[in-house]
Fold:
Amino acid sequence: MTTPGDSAAEIWPLWEVFVRSNRGLSHVHVGSLHAPDEILAVRNARDLYTRRSEGVSVWVVPAVAITTSDPDAKGAFFESPAGKNYRHASYYSKSEGVKHL
Amino acid sequence: MTSTITPDTSATTVISVEEQQFNDLIEADSRIEPRDWMPEGYRKSLVRQISQHAHSEIIGMQPESNWITRAPSLKRKAILMAKVQDEAGHGLYLYSAAQTLGATRDDMTDALIAGKARYSSIFNYPTPSWADMGSIGWLVDGAAICNQVPLCRASYGPYGRAMVRICKEESFHQRQGFEILLELMAGTEEQRQMAQDSVNRWYWPALMMFGPPDDDSPNSAQSMAWKIKRHSNDELRQRFVNMLVPQAAVLGVTLPDPDLHFNDETQQWDLGVIDWTEFHEVLAGRGPNNAQRLQRRRDAHEEGEWVREAAAAYARKQPALTNEREMAAS
Structure:
């Protein structure tokens, strides 16, 4: 499957950018950019996505290296949790009013 | 709506499963993402709008970079550089969003420098005085914010997300512009005149940024049905003027519209007639600075050719270089 934004007509490969805003937090996807190699991708990501101290760490990942679930099968693919509300704490209502539960 | 394909085509149109899914997502006010099926018109319309928007950010660097070397203080110079750098960043966020739709960066750039793509007419006006840095921030970025805040909820995910980032940064732009005018208005008579003269020149073109009046805006209806656009041009223009009037009072500047008056009935500010001939002239390439702006963009692109080539050559050499380093280390 082709990656959006990545095509033979683009001279530079597409990179997905992830920024960790603070120690203790996950890297979060912030956007993408095109760059010739990983070194320039990291530098460009810094200039493009962290001009206001948005991050303490940046990851760049070649977009082609990401495998995604099939968008056309999203209903079926994520069907398993449906009807399994016993997986949520809110399903267990008999303990209501009991403290520290 | 649950029906997907109607066997009887005499009265109803056949809608594919994908199209139905698309319609349902739009209906539910959800978002369309790059890998989703979308109507060709939706894709085209977005590429047009997003790339025009990106071009506007990139061309928009020029009227302001004009003043970087002549900013009145080091502080103002640093601010202006940060702002122009932001505009470049905004252009890149938007080009990236358009690229998720299959548009290529080269095609978009080529269309711009060949004069085939449009960008906001506002950037074809000159910036002869320092006060114009104030007016651009207050009026031009102010109008842009008014336009862009609703775009954060645009139905196309990557566009909306780009707009969220842009809007956060635009508010600094607007405030620094307002502050420039405020300081000039607290200055000498000459400085006050410079500020007023600048507001006089930018006011009407800023109102034109919202686009033609609703009854003359061919793409609006479809764009609103697709929830790319959330409010009509006239609605946003009215909202902007309502905000400007009290701000102008704080600055102590007048707005150059003798017909501007408060309408007790609608509780809004009624404005005078906009000169749409000027708007169409500038859009058609006959504005004061169209040729200069495009020429400069073209030159920058051509002069940057060797940088792009060097970066690509370096990237090609990377695997070999890494091998050499590893060999040397072992």
